[in-house]
Predict the 3D structure of the following.
Amino acid sequence: MKPGTQSYYAELVQRTIDRIATHLDEALDLHSLAAAANLSPFHFHRVFRGMTGETPAELARRLRLERAAWQLRSTTEPVTRIAFDAGFDTHESFTRAFRSQFDTSPSGFRSRTYQRTELPTMCGVHYTGSGRISAFVARLPGAPIMDVTITSMPELRLGTVRHIGPYNQIPVAFATLGARLGPAAGELMRAGSRMLAIYHDDPESVPLDQLRSDAAVSIPDGMAIPAGLVEQRLPAGRYACATHVGPYEQLGDAWLRLLGEWLPQSGERMANSECYELYVNDPSTTPKAELKTELYVPLVTTD
């Protein structure tokens, strides 16, 4: 591991936790948090969640509920006021959320003797009346849990179809891509072209019906981009590559482990360009359990 790399990500996450915990009554500005880390909001979320077990929004919600429990136990503030402070529009919605976490209503919590106001968490960060924020406990194993290789990738020239909507509906874009390739599909297959996907937005902060992703096929230089496809290029450089074998539905967890667990302890830093998925075999003829997908993460070039 290169000195300071794990601490870089740990410090990044700790700064974000401190910002959230000391500004619980403010809306989260995910873009500024991610920009400070030189990451896209999507990748920032994956790193943060992989290291803490929570997204920034989940952390903020839990700390607000812990603060509400502390206020119920330690103050005489009206329940309605505490509910509004916790970010809930109505007493009823606050009561439902509070009961789901503490197994009692806010009024019931206040009228009984409860020793703890903390909710279960992996990162060890909790609300305290003093405002002091403890250092988080990184959810990192002692050694990388993924088999990851560092490889030099050439620039990839792509023909793409944009998909707007939930990521699990991107097969619609791939169907469109196949239709638009037409006779060129055979020529591309003989040239060794590969199918890829690029995901641009963070589902935690962008509405599902506005998520942007691209279904893509690699196209050799010198070959015309088929009509109806948009040309994009992925830069050459150093990439971390992990291979996932299994259903595509499990790819989200694979990305989480790669960026949230492997990356912080790898000695590498992520570059500010696109990650992508490369599909090794054909889902129309391959059993789900045998589907092979390569995950590529751009890395900062070392001297």
